[in-house]
Write a structure and sequence with these properties.
Strand order of the largest sheet: 2-1-3-4-5
Distance between the termini: 49 Å
Order of helices and strands: EHEHEHEHEHEEEEHEHHEE
Structural class: alpha/beta
Strand content: 15-25%
CATH architecture of the largest domain: 3-Layer(aba) Sandwich
Number of strands: 12
CATH class of the largest domain: Alpha Beta
CATH topology of the largest domain: Rossmann fold
Number of helices: 8
CATH superfamily of the largest domain: Response regulator
Length: about 240
Amino acid sequence: MTKTILVVDDEKSIVTLIKYNLEQAGYHVITALDGGEGLKKALEDHPDLIILDWMLPNLDGMEVCKDLRQRKVSTPILMLTAKDEEFDKVLGLELGADDYMTKPFSPRELTARVKAILRRIQHMPKMEEPDSEDKQYLEVAELKIFPEQYEAYFFGELLELTPKEFELLLYLVENKGRVLTRDQLLSAVWKYDFAGDTRIVDVHISHLREKIEKNTRKPQYIKTIRGLGYKLEEPKTS
């Protein structure tokens, strides 16, 4: 089935460029020129991925991203920004964006990132945990990960995870008990050069802890190893 990409940008030349390259790659592309229209199409048309500009009229990209995540819309969001401050990038990720690119960008690189994101995700929402006898899964205490279904369950309830949160959690579980540096996690999960942007990892770790830790200040699953990185382990039972 052809994947649908929503492109939200107020620069018509950018929209035309992205639309042309993605259609050449075989995607169906819908567009919006302001934040309000983009939010409406995201909610009504259910795209498989959203390419969202930071600076937009009506509603800016951050507000659109925040609104979608508050509505529990987990569609992956690739943020475009002409700004290059690290704070801007981290803020976008804190609000729920999965990835970002800084303008100007290579259409080839943008298409490659879209392909990589869509290759790794599957939209198969379920209200109950899959039958563990029929499907392969990884388990750490009350946490179950079903890689093929792109789903994670905690105490039997489906977790609302963005694609990057899922991929990070899966990698941590696959390497249970190992100390992983931030650079290792960047390389394994993001798969391209984010040199110096290790706060991206910290933001996503914080999001995961909010969803699987009873007390985020005293995490039982994802431990911080001071000066090194993170480690996922079995929680200690009292």
